[in-house]
Design brief:
The chain is 55% helix and 21% strand. By secondary structure, the chain is of the alpha+beta class.
């Protein structure tokens, strides 16, 4: 390996770049859907949601539940929960002048909501809500449709708790831009006390949105919450139960990604195999001499395969290490797409941004797959060496 450094470097480089390409393709695809899911659930239902049993079927404010200090204690004691926020949601008719539009009004605790959805960071005009405000924040698309600006007034009409009429007019304190286009056209936020007064509910919520860092622990957390709230008439649902169309779209695209990955692995296999053929053909003279002086073909094949395995391991490790700074850079500086990609993204209600996933398991899995391909292809050396004729190889 050290005697022919150029050949060794070429072999290691082919595996190095193969690992990088495989990792980049995987983390970019996963990253797109992670962001789409995160953007959607953070602004709507959370990765998990607690609500009154049967609420999700009709989403009526009549299915709200009373504020419960015991539930607050349970949520604060769960280590997997990174943030949670109560919501009081209803649909209302927003009116300004001759313009009217249906919208979703969400009563929020401003401080807690900001830990879940980072709503204050999405402000493009005005100021964030305070608990004592009697103002509203509107999504940018909705404000544009109603031709409203900061400090204008919007009139809301809807149905309140237990059939009461809900009506009110509110000064616009802030305008928010949301990454999900459909949400950007129909959402508004009131402080919780103001929303409870608007709907005449008292200290009640329609749901509690829950966020956590590791999506793999959602089911375990759900079971823990169900166990701790047994008999309280609460229902706990996961994001994929509440928004199944996103999960279905995700599974469809991941199926397509498997096909694309298969094609990439095939290209990688041909590239590595070409490098192996080059290495074997360059060493034919050497192999012929070794066989002629008495070295058994089985031992020679074992030595060559060991060399290839070592080079494959080195190339794979270097590839995994080399891919990380590239992935980290694009994680910190996402790729903003335009043109047809942006139009497709808007159709499926997610922001046209590619921000790779940095889960280390993606690096390990892709490295392992490429390493396996390289090792399997290196076994071709056994077949090739056993077919060698010493005289022909020496004269090659």
């Amino acid at each position: 390996m050290w005697r022919s450094r150029r050949r060794t470097l070429i072999t290691i480089s082919s595996i190095f770049f193969a690992v990088i390409f495989a990792i980049l393709m995987r983390v970019m695809m996963i990253g797109v859907f992670d962001k789409m899911i995160a953007d959607t659930v953070s602004m709507s239902c959370g990765y998990l949601q607690i609500h009154h049993t049967g609420y999700w079927a009709n989403k009526s404010v009549d299915s709200s539940f009373a504020e419960n200090p015991e539930l607050v204690t349970i949520l604060n004691n769960e280590k997997e929960i990174t943030a949670w926020a109560p919501h009081l949601e209803t649909f209302a008719l927003a009116s300004s002048g001759e313009k009217t539009k249906g919208m979703m009004v969400i009563g929020i605790n401003p401080e807690k909501e900001n830990t879940v959805s980072k709503l204050s960071q999405k402000l493009i005009a005005g100021k964030y809500l305070a608990d004592s405000d009697k103002c509203i924040m509107l999504a940018e698309g909705l404000a544009d449709y109603l031709k409203l600006k900061l400090n204008d007034t919007v009139v809301l009409l809807g149905q309140g708790y237990e059939g009461n009429m809900a009506a009110g007019k509110y000064l616009i304190k802030g305008i928010v831009h949301l990454a999900v286009p459909e949400m950007n056209k129909q959402m508004g936020w009131l402080p919780m006390v103001c929303s409870q007064h608007f709907l005449n509910t008292g200290a009640r919520y329609t749901s509690i949105a829950i966020m956590l860092d590791n999506r793999n622990k959602i089911d375990a957390l759900k079971q823990s919450l169900l166990k701790q709230t047994t008999g309280s008439d609460y229902e706990v649902m996961t994001w994929d139960q509440m928004i199944p169309e996103i999960e279905q779209f995700f599974q469809l695209k991941m199926g397509q990604n498997v096909i694309m990955s298969g094609i990439l692995y095939l290209v990688i296999a041909f590239g590595i195999f070409g490098t192996i053929l080059m290495m074997l053909n360059e060493r034919m003279h050497e192999f012929g001499i070794l066989i002629a002086i008495g070295m058994r073909k089985g031992i020679l094949a074992t030595v060559v395969v060991m060399e290839m395995v070592l080079m494959s391991i080195v190339g794979t490790i270097f590839g995994m290490v080399g891919a990380f700074p590239i992935v980290l850079y694009f994680r910190l500086h996402p790729i903003h797409m335009g043109g047809s990609w942006a139009k497709v993204a808007e159709q499926f209600n997610f922001e046209p941004i590619i921000q790779p996933n940095i889960d280390i398991s993606n690096f390990i899995i892709q490295g392992y797959i490429v390493l396996t391909i390289a090792i399997l292809l290196s076994l071709y050396a056994i077949f090739k060496i056993h077919k060698i004729k010493a005289i022909a190889a020496i004269n090659s």
